[in-house]
């Protein structure tokens, strides 16, 4: 059997070889021009698919970074506002201590009340702070309008109690600014654990000096009443009326019961009473309003002066606790800022890994590409020379 090698077949084979070499050379030229070795998905289907997935992962990291920047800005604004609010509470505390001194006149206390009123209004302005983009910091998710408003009965809160959770890295979330209800409303009274108050109808000169827990294991968080009799004796009863302690009051000595103690100064009258209970909550604005009420009193009797001192002492304790509450709120924001820094480090590490892997899939190795380009160029020139030589083949050359 013989195979016929025709001139047309030689021409077609040579042309196909030339076209293949030219196409390969053109591809290499495009790779060198773009710096990319994956020009189309058909160059490496698996690698191209992996590269698209990495592009999406990098885009997600960019979105996480934008989320983190937004939350960082809001938390930074919160930190600034709470720092100012803490400073105002500190100044109110100083004024309360000053007003509690016995050397001041009623006029002096009224002058202090003027400054306290200004500070209270400043606190309300801070509570309605915005983040610079028209959104209110302390409105929760209802941050399109001012969350706090003053009414005839006090300050009301119009926001909600939701704290946004924002994703700032894959499966890593950080809390947005605190809702105003947590910062300005739910503030513990007393020393933060227990509180004490004199009954409004007391007629003696008994004043609350100090109180606290001496044995937390015995304290049940109940409400206790200390009632005095004419001979300075007292009885401590719980909310159910059960007597838990008795004794004779000595000014300055502690009355101890159920793991708590209270020190009373002055002389309580027959029928006077004092209450000790677990600390409740009150909004900061109501606490300052109670202080203003105490500052504006005009006592003329020892009983009235004792009532004013009790009110001032209570306000001083509540404001000191509120100041600590502000510090705790700042600490909460600081923890979120620290989480943002950790997330940024995580994003940077993941981004670097993705970009390195993506570079290995897409980026061209110029040294290899140039060497291959030179090789393909030589092969093309050889094919062209071979084609020229093939064109000269003819039977006429043999018989001539």
UniProtKB/TrEMBL annotation:
Coiled-coil boundaries: 11-38
Domain Flagellin N-terminal residues, every copy: 5-142
Domain of life according to the entry: Bacteria
Annotated compartments: Bacterial flagellum; Secreted
Pfam (any one): Flagellin_N
Any GO MF annotation of the entry: structural molecule activity
Gene Ontology terms describing biological process: bacterial-type flagellum-dependent cell motility
Entry keyword Secreted: yes
Main location: other
This protein's UniProt keywords: Bacterial flagellum, Cell projection, Cilium, Coiled coil, Flagellum, Secreted
Gene Ontology cellular-component terms listed: bacterial-type flagellum hook; extracellular region
UniProt similarity note: Belongs to the bacterial flagellin family.
Annotated PANTHER family: FLAGELLAR HOOK-ASSOCIATED PROTEIN 3, FLAGELLIN
Name of this protein: Flagellar hook-associated protein FlgL
Organism: Luteimonas yindakuii
